[in-house]
Amino acid sequence: MKERNFDITTELLQLIPSELAYQYRIIPVQNNQESITFLTDTNNVNELKNELEIVLGTTVALQIEQQEVINQFLLSNYRKRNKNTSTLTYSDDFLLNIIHEAKEIGSSDIHFEAFEEMNKVRFRIDGKLIEKYLISVSEYPKIINRLKIMSGMDISEKRLPQDGRINISTSHEDFDIRVSSLPTLHGEKLVLRILSKNSVAIQLEKLGFTTEELKTYKNSVKKPNGIILISGPTGSGKTTTLYATLKELNKEDTNILTIEDPIEYTLEGVNQVQLKEDIGLDFASTLRTFLRQDPDVIMVGEIRDVATANMAIRAALTGHLVLSTIHTNSAWGTISRLIDMGVPSFLIASTLNVSVAQRLVRKLCDHCKVEVATEADDVPEELYSKGIITSHYTAVGCEHCYQTGYKGRKAIYEIIPVTKDIEKAIKKEELEIEAYLAEKKIHTLKDNAITLIKEGITSIDEVYSLLIS
């Protein structure tokens, strides 16, 4: 017997919001412009039909289906929203409804994308994009212009990228949205990054450090001066680690200054500056000013160029603790990157306290993950032949994880403290230190990824790129 497909097309999916789908237990299966056909398991067909036609303003046809089938359709296609966080209803403003829905289901970004025949809205949830809505070509420019007005952009400028910001404030919540526009072939693409102002839950102990890694990292950040560098690709959680570190350092007798792009969380007691490169307020120039502000701790959002790197090192040499991020693939790769940027190796060796690399990985859903034996095609040959991973868990999907097989994410780290031996290696620019890391039992991203697989926390697919590094 052929397994039933419970997927619904985006065109049908966006006909009703998840609240209505769950409230009335209905699944849209056909829309012929004159009427909408729904599956339902209700007994009061006539009463439901009349109510839906009033709510939706169109003719409705209903088809009876088994309760288990309706449950599976609902769980596979509609995320339940948090009813306590918004007072918006289906008839309220379309844009605000999208924003609040994204916030409530844990989305980090909203993508408005222009294509030739139909335009899309996609949400990024747990690091993956999910298509949520389709917008007609005729309606799309109105929505983009509305968003640009809300975010303070110039609606007449459609040829150049722009950046803006929206504040959403209701009786239940207050958060900001960073908006970025990009001119593409068929129109402007807008990405909305949802920025939470709530930093209460950010703590180093909850990020994913092992006990030994947390001890090493805390010892490094307790030093009165030097540089703490955190590396990783975009979206790997670097900024969250920095904020958690600032919370650890935030004391009454400590003057903390930050220069960020954007300011993602507001921290009481921390002096935060928003980067504005269009008026000359960049990382390097702001760092120069910070040194005249009697700081104890300085956080620089990102080291992008040699000028910022040199200013960060100067700040560390003059008795300040400097925290920043950098785009490299590994903790040791950070040293190589700084040397390539032209920073003298002896300065790196004398100022760097610790180099950290991190990734965010999706966690398998505890309710539906399944353990299976590892086969030759599942892992790199080296790991299979040595019997390092004999079994692993795979993603399945259930009502608890929106049929994705994953629920939540956690960070994994690679932490290299700069010891006397590391200092010597940096000064000599000896960039091969695998033997040293193994001797000191310093776990790499690959080591930690293997541990997570063995413990059933994540899947091989989720961390495969780390296994072949």
What this model shows, in words?
- There is one protein chain.
- With 469 residues, the chain is an alpha/beta fold.
- Helices cover 33% and strands 27% of the residues.
- It has 17 helices and 18 strands.
- The strands form 4 sheets. Strands 12-11-13-14-10-15-18 form a 7-stranded mixed β-sheet, with helices on both faces.
- A hairpin with a 5-residue loop joins strand 4 and strand 5.
- The longest helix is centred in the first third of the chain and has 12 residues.
- The two termini are 43 Å apart.
User: Could you give the distance between the termini?
Assistant: 43 Å
Number of strands: 18
Q: Tell the overall outline.
A: globular
Biggest sheet architecture: 7 strands, mixed
* SS element count, helices: 17
Strand order of the largest sheet: 12-11-13-14-10-15-18
Helix content: 25-40%
Radius of gyration: 26 Å
- Helix-strand category: alpha/beta
**Average pLDDT rating:** 88
Q: What portion of the residues fall into strands of 2 or more residues?
A: 25-35%
Low-confidence stretches: 83-92
